Amino acid sequence: QVQLVESGGELVQPGGSLRLSCAASGFTFSRFAMSWYRQAPGKERELVAIISAYGSSTYEGSVKGRFTISRDDAKNTVYLEMNSLKPEDTAVYYCNALRTFTRENYWGQGTQVTVSS
Question: Is it the case that residue 22 has pLDDT exceeding 90?
Answer without folding.
Answer: yes
